[in-house]
Specification:
- It contains 34 helices and 31 strands.
- By secondary structure, the chain is of the alpha+beta class.
- Strands 23-22-21-20-26-25-24-27 form an eight-stranded mixed sheet, with helices on both faces.
- Strand 28 and strand 29 form a beta hairpin.
- Helix 28 crosses helix 29.
- InterPro entries: Kinesin_motor_dom_sf, Myosin_head_motor_dom-like, Myosin_TH1, MYSc_Myo1, P-loop_NTPase.
- Keywords: Actin-binding, ATP-binding, Cell membrane, Cell projection, Cytoplasm, Membrane, Methylation, Motor protein, Myosin, Nucleotide-binding, Repeat.
- One of its GO terms (molecular function) is ATP binding.
- One of its GO terms (biological process) is endocytosis.
């Protein structure tokens, strides 16, 4: 039975209960009558969908009932409960496995399974975008998704290894990339995109991780009440005594400057924040060590990795004092005395900055190495199969607004602007594609296009990043303040940009002079420019790089490449690198089918059950949830496939109950007509019904609830008589046996095919005869469907090996038959035309430029009719029959003056006519040959013997139909092999032993004139390249 959950209820199954960590039992699904208590499970069904208050109230109702998941169409909204809910067990995984998206209540597993099934059935890569602010539960969501795939996907020994490594990559990356912040005890301080690769069976066989913008500044400084990265505390608290001794560490975080730079009210260590009640560093250390082994780290690699972590702590303890010269000197007793040489001649402030820069560079590059190492262990090594499918997981920082916002928040919020732009575009695109696929008219949706903000940040030469890079690279005294001034000069007039100088009096009161404000899609954010240039440059002194390249630590050797020392090109700035990586991320996401999980933090104090409406309203705004809901509700609130809709509500109409035998569309039309739906309330697509208003659907649901009670009391539900049950069982048995027989036959056929394929190269035998016969039959049927259509069609299906000879005979017979059929249909006139065209092709193809233009034009019998030829000429011809006549231009032998003439061809000679006079008669026997150029001009020369007294010399003529004319001359004079095509020039006899020359040159237009050297110059355009 098909069940569609429209709001949280389970009218056809028993209610499911969950036990919260505090022992409170809460209902997951409620009956229809509890709609007011638990709200709707899809915000699209909110009656007042434009009201933010109604949106938040629906979230509140569900949160109070421990229903932390709600849909906006296919988007999942998740509220962090800050307690353990028993809704992630294997039983829950099985409940959502392979089930239609809307058949069960909203859940992370529903989105995961829907993406997985779409990847398998549609063979299209998927991605799941998880977003939200720190503490909203993004990292936990990504871990739950990985666990779901690890449990529910097919497994083998290799697959199990990959599953384990995928799962164990999380604690390692969390240790090195997560930290305790004011908002979250396990805050990801980097963005992560992970590809999970699946083979054709749907099993995970590999993975790949891309990391974005690690917060390296945390290594050397943390805000009030925050901690450094977890790995430092885990190593100190959980590391074995022997390990700590080798690393030169003490089991006391208070001894290390990089761990006590923040001030907090901590129970164990007043004045710093190493201990957090929700974090067990010692236990986490064991998990990380085990995970490193599972991923494939050797003991030597782990040792060297931990050496780097310890070195960073030691580096932080390097203290400086000032010399009389003003230079810095190291005052602390440490193992790295060589820093004294490296840091001179820096002053105290520069030396401290250089030390911190080195610490950040070492940690940041080590983190990148760590990600690459994990990728190597997850790489799919089977080269025989490349076409795997992919599901991507994007766990990236949400929109951030702090009391003091710096370069990191600027980059993070720029990233969120790009993701919001992508989110709206893809949501609109998927909506429009669904409407078009169903034949429903799409009405354009008005929405805020944040491209204007993205351009403000990233536009070439004029965007904030370009201006920041320009300030970082320009010579002179560039500073954070000059950067701010440059912004005011360049983008000061932008509607989404404000500074203290440009603001009105009211805004100036809440803005510092060293701040600029961006009006993001999610709201206004003030950014303090102090530190922007240093963080964007992210530079390291060359001598420090040289020392790192000389390190004996193999990991550091890989992190610091010696090529950096010889490469004179300045490395890209941090903002430019982030912009480029973000552009690549957008390309990756655009190439996949997206699903969305929007995570919300209910309160800042991490208390279970507390719902802070002000905080949640802020998150609803910057996550763009109302905008998404408005886009989804712009047309129809509810849409379902016909079979699903009819199956659920068929009992409401006598014509569709108990079964509808006709077309599904007709059944749904009959049902909604009986229910009294008005035309403006619904539309019928090609395979779905679209309902515009939630109230229409709720009324239908209420009618269904009432109908269930009446059905339970109707005579139709009285127990059927035993004979009726017997007949039904007998008929079902027959149908089942028929299905079983068909399955057996199908299995036998598949088995015979597989065996035949295995023995296909052997002589005919019982094992392969069925397969070979089918291959022959299949080839002949394919040949029958794909026979050549005409004599020019040379296509022919590739035959199997056994039919190669027969196929060749068939091909020849087919061609002979087509040629014979074609020849029978040719008329004498058309045959004569083709013979002339063949001769023209033989003479001119690939030799003369204007030949291709003549091919589609038919040759005519004559270019002059009887009226155009003087009667005296016809009388002079007497009994000679004229075969062809064409107007030509004759060029005099001496001055090359152009004169109009007519060229007549008879059976015996060619005659040149001037009005009523026969000016020259050239017998074909006396015609030595014909010369023509290779260009597109129409000039040609008739060569005659120089010792013939009857002839005055060779004749230079020009015809507008030169291909046709010369073909006729060649046929009439039988001089096919005497047509000469020349390149460059033609030499001809003028008379009395004198010679003339015609020079041919390519040009833009046709020009014929006498040149200064006495030659006849012909310029002709080049029509075709030969």
């Amino acid at each position: 039975m098909c069940f569609i959950a429209l709001w949280d209820r389970a009218p056809l199954i028993e209610p499911t209960y969950v036990v919260a960590s505090d022992g409170v039992r809460a209902m997951m699904e409620s009956a229809l009558t509890a709609r007011d208590r638990v709200g709707v499970q899809d915000f699209v069904l909110l009656e007042n969908h434009t009201s933010e208050a109604a949106f938040i109230e629906n979230l509140r109702k569900r949160f109070k009932e421990n229903l932390i998941y709600t849909y906006i169409g296919s988007v999942l909204v998740s509220v962090n409960p800050y307690k353990d809910l028993e809704i992630y067990t294997k039983n829950h995984m099985e409940r959502y496995r392979g089930v239609n998206f809307y058949e069960v209540s909203p859940h992370l597993y529903a989105v995961s399974d829907n993406s997985y099934r779409s990847m398998r059935t549609e063979r299209k890569d998927q991605c799941i975008l998880i977003s939200g602010e720190s503490g909203a539960g993004k990292t936990e969501a990504s871990k739950k998704i990985l666990q779901y795939y690890a449990v529910t996907c097919p497994a083998s020994e290799h697959v199990q290894t990959i599953k384990d490594r995928l799962l164990q990559s999380n604690p390692v990356l969390e240790a090195f990339g997560n930290a305790k912040t004011l908002r979250n005890d396990n805050s990801s301080r980097f963005g992560k995109y992970m590809d999970i690769q699946f083979d054709f069976k749907g099993a995970p066989v590999g993975g790949h991780i891309i990391n974005y913008l690690l917060e390296k500044s945390r290594v050397v400084h943390q805000n009030h009440g925050e901690r450094n990265f977890h790995i430092f505390y885990q190593l100190i608290e959980g590391g074995e005594e022997d390990l700590l001794r080798r690393l030169g560490l003490e089991r006391n975080p208070q001894q290390y400057q990089y761990l006590v730079k923040s001030i907090s009210c901590c129970r164990k260590y007043p004045g710093n924040c190493p201990k957090v009640s929700s974090i067990n560093d010692r236990s986490d250390w064991k998990v990380v060590r085990k995970a490193l082994t599972v991923i494939g780290f050797s003991e030597d690699e782990v040792e060297e990795l931990l050496n780097i972590i310890a070195s960073v702590l030691h580096l932080g303890n390097v203290q400086y004092g000032g010399e009389d010269s003003g230079n810095a000197c190291i005052t602390s007793d440490t193992q790295i005395k060589y820093l004294a040489r490296l840091m001179s001649p820096l002053n105290l402030e520069q030396a401290s900055s250089a030390r911190d820069a080195l610490s950040k560079a070492v940690y940041g590059r080590t983190f990148t190495w760590l990600v690459n190492k994990i990728n190597a262990s997850l790489a799919y090594t089977d080269d025989s199969y490349k076409n795997w499918s992919v599901i991507g997981l994007l766990d990236i920082y949400g929109f951030e607004v702090f009391q003091n916002n710096s370069f990191e928040q600027f980059c993070i919020n720029y990233c969120n602007e790009k993701l919001q732009q992508l989110f709206i575009e893809l949501t609109l695109k998927s909506e429009q594609e669904e409407y078009e696929a169903e034949g429903i008219t799409w009405e354009p949706v008005q929405y805020f296009n944040n491209k204007i903000i993205c351009d403000l940040v990233e536009e070439k030469f004029k965007g904030i990043i370009s201006i920041l890079d320009e300030e970082c690279l320009r010579p002179g005294d560039a500073s954070d303040i000059t950067f701010l001034e440059k912004l005011e000069d360049t983008v000061g007039g932008h509607p989404h940009f404000v500074t203290h100088k440009l603001a009105d009096g009211k805004t100036r009161k809440v803005m510092g002079r060293d701040e600029f404000r961006l009006l993001h899609y999610a709201g206004e954010v003030n950014y303090n420019v102090n530190g922007f240039l240093d963080k964007n440059n992210d530079l390291l002194f060359r001598n420090l790089k040289e020392v790192m390249c000389m390190s004996e630590n193999k990991i550091l050797n890989q992190c610091f490449d010696r090529e950096e020392l010889t490469d004179k090109k300045r490395p890209d700035t941090a903002a430019t690198q982030f912009k480029a990586s973000l552009a690549k991320l957008m390309e990756i996401l655009m190439s996949k089918e997206p699903s969305y999980i929007r995570c919300i933090k209910p309160n800042d104090s991490k208390q279970a059950g507390r719902f802070d409406e002000v905080l949640i309203r802020h998150q609803v705004k910057y996550l763009g949830l109302m905008e998404n809901l408005r886009v989804r509700r712009a047309g129809f609130a509810y849409r379902r496939r016909y079979e699903v809709f009819l199956q659920r509500y068929k009992s409401l109409c006598p014509d569709t109950w108990p079964n509808w035998r006709g077309k599904l569309a007709d059944g749904v039309a009959t049902l909604v007509k009986h229910l009294g739906y008005k035309p403006e309330e619904y539309k019928l697509g090609r395979s779905k019904i679209f309902i515009r208003f939630p109230k229409t659907l709720f009324a239908t649901e209420d009618a269904l609830e009432t109908r269930k009670h009446s059905l339970g009391e109707s005579p139709q539900h009285v127990l059927l008589s035993l004979p009726t049950i017997g007949i039904q069982a007998w008929w079902r048995g027959i149908l089942a046996r028929r299905r079983a027989q068909r399955r057996r036959q199908a299995a036998d056929t598949i088995r015979r095919f597989i065996k035949g394929f295995i023995y296909r190269h052997q002589e005919r035998c019982p094992e392969n005869e069925y397969f070979l016969d089918y291959v022959r039959y299949s080839f002949l049927m394919k040949l029958r469907r794909n026979l050549p259509k005409n004599v020019l069609d040379k296509s022919w299906p590739t035959p199997p090996a056994a039919l190669t000879e027969a196929s060749e005979h068939l091909r020849k017979m087919c061609m002979q038959n087509m040629v014979w059929t074609y020849c029978k249909r040719i008329s004498p006139e058309w045959k004569h035309q083709m013979e002339q065209k063949m001769i023209a092709s033989e003479i001119f193809k690939d030799k003369k430029d204007n030949y291709p233009q003549s091919v589609p034009k038919l040759f005519v019998s004559t270019r002059l009719n009887g009226e155009e030829i003087n009667p005296k000429v016809l009388q002079a011809l007497g009994t000679e029959k004229m075969k062809y006549a064409v107007p030509v231009t004759k060029y005099d032998r001496k001055g090359y003056k152009a004169r109009p003439r007519q060229l007549l061809l008879t059976a015996n000679c060619a005659i040149i006519v001037e009005e009523a006079k026969l000016k020259q008669r050239i017998d074909y026997k006396a015609l030595k040959g014909v010369s023509v150029s290779s260009l597109s001009d129409g000039l040609f020369v008739l060569h005659v013997p120089s010792d013939d007294n009857k002839q005055k010399g060779d004749v230079v003529l020009q015809s507008d139909h030169v291909i046709e004319t010369l073909t006729k001359v060649a046929i009439c004079a039988d001089k096919i092999n005497n047509i000469n095509i020349n390149q460059g020039s033609i030499t001809f006899t003028v008379g009395q032993g004198k010679e003339g020359i015609i020079d041919f040159t390519p040009g833009s237009e046709l020009l014929v004139a006498k040149a200064k050297n006495g030659h006849l110059s012909v310029t002709a355009p080049r029509l075709n390249s030969r």
